[in-house]
Design a protein that fits this description.
Two copies of one chain form a homodimer. Helix content of chain A is 9%, strand content 34%. A six-stranded antiparallel sheet of chain A has the order 1-2-3-10-5-8. The longest helix of chain A is centred in the C-terminal third of the chain and has 12 residues. The radius of gyration of chain A is 17 Å and the shape is globular.
């Protein structure tokens, strides 16, 4: 029926950013609720930030609106204008085309934060990261330096890729 | 800065449906959080359903994904398949093109329910209401009978229209 069984939605932990930019997201987990319901126009994630974790590198989109609503815990929203604390019930939105890098940081030493994040799925988008030498252009489809030079392939598991054990099993199966 | 001051977001109560289809929404209030942040690709509303109130007439969209996440209280989600209870932390999604009429009903006699609702803003959409003789086609831009015949203009205040006092003041000003 219509209700999403959250317990059955696969959790994705970490980030597909090239190393070392993925490190602050080691304690970030997402459950893609919108995907679970078959939505395609926007994504909705149940986002868990362990103490110290970031929601992302600070970024902005040319083609995708974004929205976050804090469900529990406390995070710091960082934008060009500075820092603001978000508590349960607080929310923020980031219109496409506004080149103001934003992200959430859980500065708590003991308490996780849980957030609902919504973002458009646009065919054409450019995402800029004001603090680091990284961009992603939908025409290219992968993270590059600002001059377009690609990053070397990641050695560690990337977001959405099969777990090492599963991948080994699949390769074994293929080899038979 | 980025955080939305929810206390400053205007509450819209009731529905723009033609009478009497607007009656079950008399106890429905929305705060358009996404609009407050300048988002245009999808809407995000903080939806309050007083005891007895419905989120909408049961409906489906051809062009717009929808998603709801219950923040507090309890509602019944009604779809073609039947009824399901949603409690705080439960959610549901409704992909565009799936012609399964859905809505939320607060059957509590004393407790309001609060929900976050997200919906795409599509240029082209058709919305069907399986339980009543009403449709809305983006090509027409207003509620009509299924055969396209328009409904008479509403006497009562429609959604988003100025409050009677304000409207009277504006007319007075214009007359000067």
């Amino acid at each position: 029926m219509g209700k999403i069984d959250i317990t059955k939605v696969r959790t994705r932990t970490g980030s597909g950013y090239p190393s070392p930019y993925d490190e602050p997201m080691a304690g970030r987990s997402r459950k893609p609720l919108g995907d679970a319901a078959g939505l395609t126009q926007f994504g909705v994630n149940l986002l868990l930030l362990e103490p110290g974790a970031w929601s992302s590198q600070r970024h902005w989109h040319t083609g995708e609106d974004e929205f976050v609503f804090l469900l529990s815990g406390e995070v710091v929203l960082v934008t060009d204008a500075g820092e603001e604390v978000l508590q349960a019930g607080d929310c923020a939105g980031f219109p496409k085309g506004k080149r103001d890098g934003h992200h959430l940081v859980n500065r708590s030493k003991s308490k996780a934060a849980v957030c609902l994040e919504v973002g458009t799925r646009a065919d054409v988008d450019f995402c800029g990261y004001p603090d680091i030498d990284m961009i992603i252009d939908s025409k290219v489809g992968k993270y590059t330096h600002r001059d377009g030079t690609p990053y070397p392939p990641k050695r560690s598991r990337t977001l959405g890729a099969p777990k090492p054990k599963k991948a080994a099993k699949a390769m074994k199966k293929k080899a038979k």
